[in-house]
Write a structure and sequence with these properties.
Number of strands: 21
Largest sheet: 6 strands, mixed
Order of helices and strands: HEEHEEHEEEEEHEEHEEEHEHHEEEEEE
Radius of gyration: 21 Å
CATH architecture of the largest domain: 2-Layer Sandwich
CATH topology of the largest domain: Gyrase A, domain 2
Protein name: Dimethylsulfonioproprionate demethylase DmdA
Helix content: 10-25%
InterPro entries: GcvT/YgfZ/DmdA, GcvT/YgfZ_C, GcvT_C, GCVT_N, TrmE/GcvT-like
Strand order of the largest sheet: 12-13-14-11-3-15
Strand content: 25-35%
Organism: Shimia thalassica
Bound molecules: (6S)-5,6,7,8-tetrahydrofolate
CATH class of the largest domain: Alpha Beta
Number of helices: 8
EC number: 2.1.1.-
Shape: globular
CATH superfamily of the largest domain: Probable tRNA modification gtpase trme, domain 1
GO molecular function, one term: methyltransferase activity
Length: about 375
């Protein structure tokens, strides 16, 4: 195994010292920043995530800040989700599309105030698109990447850990809502959200200088809770059907193909630059869509290229993410499947690096 060479282009995070001290064993690159992928092993991390509580350096979830009188108008131009009823204090999972209806990102939008939003982005250079739209339409809005780095607390004991550091009031947060909580004299946004199905919070750490003090305070407060550094877990996120931009979908896919039609209100999302294109595809419906796929047989290696999904000699889809699941005792996977073959129970083959492995298509994910 080769190493990733570090340089200034590959950004560290405010928590990198803590991640290294915790014995990180693997990284990926995400938004030109380091994202841990493994601490003890992916399977040990998975078990621990489901039983205890973990602290995740997800600073790679960079924020695109919109500030000014046109911030709300610009936000609605970016997404086919209708934002008119969204209130400050809410977070929305929002597909971001270009003028063809192609997915540019699948971030969490955080509405701080009528004239101030954060877009908590997945792995693509969304800042450039947003600045381009704002400039092209001469909008009265500032578009920046602020010094804000999310730290996620995930797992069944996250309420207990968080209440020890921020007080019992964090327990009252509802899913995808946020509140303001004090740490070292700073007011921080904390939301009940995160890239796992085990429950938890995301702390939007504003000011890199308090990154390590907060990390250390959480580790210290959670000693008896078996707290450990963790990271988005490949197995757990596939079981839960959490999509990974750049892996499970790209700019070549519409939100409907990604199964994100439930986050689109294309009829009423007036101003969305992809609205006309999406109105056309939404009427017809997609001809392929993301599905959970069980891959039978031996454990598969990491999916670092598309694996063809076959009906005999017919190529009917591709697997984009896959992992061996200890809890389901099978390989869990995410793939895009043609409509002729996407019904629950359809039996197909996947060409994995192991060879041809039988597979079953499902409609609902494992959790
Ligand atoms: N949190 C924050 N920013 C992020 C992510 C995150 N940016 C990058 C990446 N993750 C963006 N992608 C996702 C994908 C899924 C979810 C959030 C961001 C998610 N989905 C839930 C689900 O599908 O069950 C809930 C969606 C809903 O019901 O609204 O949470 O994780 N800050």
């Amino acid at each position: 195994m080769a190493l990733i060479s570090l340089s200034r282009r590959l950004r560290r995070t405010p928590f990198s010292d803590g991640v290294e001290a915790a014995g990180v064993r693997g990284y990926t690159v995400y938004n030109r920043m380091l994202l841990p992928t493994m601490f003890r092993s992916v399977e040990e991390d998975y078990r621990h995530l489901k039983e205890a509580v973990q602290i995740w350096d997800v600073a790679v979830e960079r924020q695109v800040e919109l500030r000014g009188p046109d911030a709300g108008r610009l936000m609605q131009m970016l997404t086919p989700r209708d934002l008119r009823s969204m209130l400050p204090g809410q977070c929305y999972y929002v597909p971001i599309v270009d003028e063809t209806g192609g997915m540019l990102n699948d971030p969490v939008a955080v509405k701080l105030a009528e004239d101030r939003w954060w877009i908590s982005i997945a792995d693509s250079d969304l800042l450039l698109w947003v600045k381009g739209v704002a400039y092209g339409y001469r909008l009265d809005v500032l578009v920046t990447e602020p010094d804000v780095s999310p730290l996620a607390i995930q797992g069944p004991k996250s309420d207990e850990l968080m209440s020890r550091v921020f007080g019992d009031r964090v327990r009252d947060l509802r899913f995808f809502r946020f509140g303001w909580f004090e740490f070292m004299g700073r007011d921080l946004v904390i939301a009940r959200s995160g890239y796992s199905k085990q429950g938890g919070f995301e702390i939007y750490v504003e000011g890199s200088d308090i990154g390590m003090p907060l990390w250390n305070a959480l580790i210290e407060a959670g000693k008896d809770l078996d707290v450990h550094a963790g990271c988005p877990n490949l197995i757990e996120r596939i079981e839960g059907g959490l999509l990974s931009y750049g892996n499970d979908m790209t700019e070549d896919n519409t939100p409907h193909e990604c199964g994100l039609g439930r986050f689109c209100n294309t009829n009423t999302a007036i101003g969305c630059v992809g609205r006309d294109a999406l109105l056309r595809v939404a009427k017809e419906g997609p001809v392929k869509q993301i599905r959970p796929i069980e891959i039978h047989g031996s454990a598969v290696p990491p999916c670092d290229r598309l694996w063809p999904v076959m009906d005999g000699d017919l190529h009917v889809g591709n697997v984009s993410s896959a992992a061996w699941s200890p809890d389901y005792n099978t390989n869990v996977a995410i793939g895009m499947v043609r409509m002729t073959h996407w019904n629950t129970g359809t039996e197909l083959d996947v060409i994995t690096p192991n060879g041809v492995q039988p597979a079953t298509v499902y409609e609902a994910f494992w959790t």
